[in-house]
Write a structure and sequence with these properties.
about 170 residues; alpha+beta; OB fold (Dihydrolipoamide Acetyltransferase, E2P); seven-stranded mixed beta sheet; three-stranded antiparallel beta sheet; 12 strands; globular
Length: about 170
């Protein structure tokens, strides 16, 4: 199964794409896929028909509601991550596939501005995985009250626990 999936990924990686983001020869995964994102949802994107979860980050689910303390309005907590991801994916993406678990691909992705996971965490729209590579970026976003870490935002319990621990 894994050999077939690796062959398919390599086949996709050899197809031409006119975008500015391409796979590099020194990628950390066994395969790389690049192109325009066909769909995305916070921490997952689809490229060339393959769903790839961005490793090292987490985003709230669509069912999680956040609220503004000043306006008292509730909103889907995942919306800021989807919005920011859409902006970052506009010029294409390249993902090194690091792991295959069942039918899920896990990868580290790059966009024109840099590492996609790092950019989402630094913007305060995604949470760094515990002991992951983006913890310093999360600490900076928390300190700067960026994105969902803004003092005006009421967060779901698990996210609020991260904010309280940082304080």
């Amino acid at each position: 199964m894994h050999a077939i999936l690796a062959f398919i990924l390599l086949l996709f990686a050899t197809q031409a794409f006119a975008g500015p983001i391409r796979c590099s020869d020194d990628g950390e995964g066994g395969a790389c896929v690049w192109g325009r994102a066909e769909g995305f949802d916070g921490a997952t994107l689809q490229v060339r028909g393959l769903k790839i979860h961005v490793v090292g980050i987490g985003v709230p689910s669509r069912r999680d509601l956040c609220a503004s303390r000043t306006t008292k309005e509730e909103f889907d907590c995942a919306r800021p991550a989807r919005k920011r991801m859409g902006e970052l994916l506009a010029k294409g993406v390249a993902c090194d596939i690091l792991d295959v678990a069942g039918d899920k691909l896990h990868g580290r992705c790059r966009v024109t501005e840099g590492d996609l996971g790092r950019l989402l965490v630094a913007a305060g729209t995604a949470k760094a995985a515990k002991d992951g590579p983006y913890e310093p970026d999360q600490a900076a976003a928390l300190a700067a009250h960026k994105g969902l870490w803004a003092t005006d935002i009421v967060l779901p319990k698990d996210w609020d626990a991260v904010r309280r621990k940082a304080e």
